[in-house]
Design a protein that fits this description.
The structure is a homodimer.
Chain A lengths: L7 H6 L13 E7 L5 E7 L1 H10 L3 E4 L4 E4 L9 E7 L6 E6 L16 E2 L14 E2 L8 H5 L9
Chain lengths: ~160, ~160
């Protein structure tokens, strides 16, 4: 769908979009909040989702759990308005800077999916590493919003 | 190596680190600059790299091009001092907030790997989408620093 990658110099410092999709046809996407700078989520796009995002200025992803194009906010109402789209040196990952107003981007109900941190230092037992909460307030109640939608988290 | 994932509620809202590695044993990692908030790079870790990062407070990744643990900055000197490690809701991606001082994190020489953006709007021809530079100044000359190291960018 996009320009063919046939020259490394062109991929790294050229002026054309030549994204690299993995063996499943996906490219990883980092989404950050333009107001706070926080990372909101880590997702994936296929070519169509990238094209739709560029054209509509609203974030579209590929849902790996539902196996279809996912217009973020379709169910929850928390659409991500895209302020900027960046692409990295070898064009195999995308960074979206988005405005979510006072909304949330995490299906668990928090503003960011990254609501916990891993304390650093000597590990005594890798099977017992405790993590701690960084965000404590849920923006919405996922049970009310998603109702019978299956949980995208898999074991 | 880490605690077994056997309960979705525990993965999402529990207190233990239960990271999910993909079919290649890797977890994606977003690295941001604690000073500017900019995303510096998108990488991967295996379990060992995650453990080393937690313990040493310096970013370690899995180099997919060299197929080995990669202590970032080993060659370039631009070590990433980790200020915080976050994990997302389903524990299948990691966010590192790092201090790189006045250094760089991109093998092409820029501070961030995301030095170009994709202008938004109607696409006339997906094969001719032009991207534009956001960073114009290289922090270092990669030819001088990396010498004969192979370029990690692949077509």
């Amino acid at each position: 769908m996009f320009k063919k990658r046939d020259n490394i110099k062109e991929v790294e410092e050229g002026k054309y979009l030549e994204p690299k999709f993995d063996e499943n046809g996906l490219i990883p996407v980092i989404t950050s909040d333009f107001k706070t700078g926080d990372i909101l989520m880590h997702g994936h796009m296929n070519g169509e989702a990238l094209k739709k995002t560029i054209e509509t200025k609203e974030a579209h992803y590929w849902s790996r759990s539902r196996k279809k194009i996912w217009h973020k906010g379709q169910i929850s109402g928390f659409v991500q308005l895209v302020k900027e789209i960046r692409i990295d040196d070898d064009q195999d990952s995308v960074w979206l800077i988005v405005d979510i107003k006072d909304g949330a981007s995490c299906h668990v109900g928090y503003r960011s999916c990254f609501y916990r941190f891993i304390p650093m230092g000597k590990i005594l037992d890798t099977k017992k590493i405790q993590i701690e909460f960084k965000e404590s307030k849920k923006i919405f109640n996922p049970k009310k919003i998603y109702k019978d939608e299956p949980n995208p988290t898999k074991l």
